[in-house]
Every structure is written in C-alpha cells, then in structure tokens.
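Extended Data, panel c. Modelled sequence:
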Amino acid sequence: MQEIPSPEGPRMLLLRCTLEKKQSIFSEDLGRASEKRIIDHTSGRWLLEQALIRWGISDLSQIEVLRDDYRAPYLSWIPGCWRNEPLPSISIAHCQSAAVVALMEPSSWVGIDAELANRGIAENAFDMMAKGDELAHLRENPQLAIEMWTAKEAIQKAHRLGMNLNPRDIKISKPEMELQLFIDDDLQIALAWRKAGEMPRSAEDELLDKTRRVIKSGQDFTVGC
C-alpha cells in the first residue's frame, strides 16, 4: 500500500495497493462472482479500511458501506450508534494491477479512476466515449484515449450517477467540477470532485430531526415508565 500525492483542493487522501484477495469488514457478498471480481472488490474494500484509519476514524465497526439508488457507494453510521456527524466522501477504482481509493471531506463528492498509463483503447470504441468535435479530436490524437476514459469515469463517479450519465455527453473541457489528471508511477489517475448534494437519509436521521423540532417548539413532553 502506498499514498498517492494529492493535488491542491479540499482535504483528501489517495491510496493505492496491488490486487490480491484480502479480508475486509466492508466486503459485500458477491455470490458466484469470478475470482477476478472478488480480488478487485476485496482489495478495494481493504484499502478503504486503511484510508479511514489514516483519516482518523479509529472504530470502523460503527461504519458500513451502503449504495444509493444509482449504486454509488457511501459511508453511513450503523443503526443503533446514534451518530450522524458527516463522514468523508469515498470513491474506489480498479485496473489490471491495482486498486485505488479516494477520501474527501464531506462537503464534496469525489470520483477517482485509474488505468495503466500505457494501456491502449481500440479506435472502434472511441464513439462510445465521445461524439462531435471531441470524437474527431480523439481520432486525430488516439494517444489521449486512456486519459479521456479515466477522466470521464471519475466525473461520472463524482456526479454519483454511474452509467445514467452517458460518457459521450460529458465534455472534458467543461466538466462543471474540479478535475485533475496525473500519472502515478505506472497509473493514469483521474480525480474529480464537486460540491456535495443531498445524501440518503436513515430512519435515525428522521427521528433525530423530529426530536429537534419538538424541542425547539417548546412543546412539553415527558418520558413514561
């Protein structure tokens, strides 16, 4: 495991590790997934654990990884902890040889993607990731394909919309968010972030808000035995 130097911006932490089957409290049941899928998943979730410890969260048993309606992963306090302080935004990616994780302060949504910098992308796939002038530019400069691919993946993740946001409609020149592209050793890294939107709410969030409203209203209430 090693830390990736972070660009200037909000508080963030970037880590990478080699792919291998690992144990993680955040691992999901993948059923009959392939061995490669299991290795990718457990490597990423193990790396997330290490990132949270470095971030300063000592008791990971109180945290779980959930997914929103678009299957974007996010951190949540486990029901019964009665904690609702904001947790960092997360993003996880895998390529042929490595897993990478990004944490960012909760005021932002983060997206990260990584691929081998020397990986080629077949030209017949270009029209799946670009259109119009951008597609023409890509065909004239095919060496930019892996940079464009990782950038669009990171932007999708930072929007928390997954494939509901068509890569062909994402303009790298106007990403409407912060976007950093850089090389870390053998990896092409793309990191994107934007102002955070509304997060899914838990039943405990609703109960705490209701209690606050009652207290602020001045209404008398007692606890019966």
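The beta strands are 2-4, 12-18, 63-67, 73-77, 89-94, 98-104, 108-116, 178-184, 187-195. This feature is highlighted in the accompanying rendering.
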